[in-house]
Amino acid sequence: MSKKVALGLPAVLLGGLLASSFLVGGAESPNDGCIPTEDGIVVNIANLPDSVGPYSGEQLKNAALIVNAGKKMGLSRHAQTIAVMTAIGESTLNNLERGDAVGPDSRGLFQQRATGWGSLEDRMNPSSAATNFYKALLEVEGWEDLAPTFAAHRVQSNADPYHYAQHWRSAQQLVSALEGAQITEAGSTNVDTAKTIKAYNLGSVRDVTARAVGVLAPQFKISTVGGHRPNDPYPDHPSGLAADFMVPLTDAGTAKGDALAQYLTENHEELGVKYLLWQQRSWYPDRGWKPMENRGSPTANHQDHVHATFQGSAGTGALPAASACMDSEADSVFAAPGERVMPSKGPITSPFGMRMHPTLGYARMHAGIDIGAPCDAAISAPSKGRVVYAGPMGGYGHLIEVDHGQGTTTRYGHMYGNGLLARVGDEVQAGQQIAKVGSDGESSGCHLHFEVRVNDKPIDPQTWIGKGKA
Question: Does domain 348-467 fall into CATH 3.90.10.10?
Answer without folding.
Answer: no
